[in-house]
Amino acid sequence: MKQAFKIGLSIAAFIAMGFFLFLPEIKTPVDGKIRLKYWMVSGLQEQPFHVTEFNRTHKNISVEVTALPWNEHEKKILTSILSGNPPDLIFL
After folding, report:
1. CA distances from 28 to 31, 37, 39, 61, 62 (A)
2. Domains of the chain: total
3. Which DSSP letter does residue 43 get?
4. pLDDT 10s digits, 7-48
5. CB proximity list for 68: less than 8 A, separation 6 or greater
6. What is the pTM of this model?
7. End-to-end distance of the chain based on CA atoms, in angstroms?
8. How far apart are CA 87 and CA 63, in angstroms?
9. Range of the domain at 67
10. Strand order in 61-68's β-sheet?
11. Distance, CA of 8 to CA of 27 (rounded, Å)
12. CA 25: distance to chain centroid?
């Protein structure tokens, strides 16, 4: 019983280590400022108040808002995911 547990634990540890080998590299911006891409489905072209307030109070983080038209949002989101450049946040 203990032998099977040790083998199972060893296999689980080996698989977990394999996952870490394929994690993408985290790139730190040169200026140290974090930029978040926030896409929202809306007819409004103006930036929401909460994002403006967040950018004002958090100097080292910048939220960039993109308003997506309702009739094109699915295509743009899928294209960005398939191209490997999806937004950080999506509000549908």
Report:
1. 9, 15, 22, 12, 14
2. 1
3. S
4. 887 887 777 776 666 666 666 666 778 899 999 887 666 667
5. 39, 40, 41, 42, 76, 77
6. 0.61
7. 51
8. 11
9. 26-91
10. 61-68, 34-41, 89-91
11. 35
12. 13
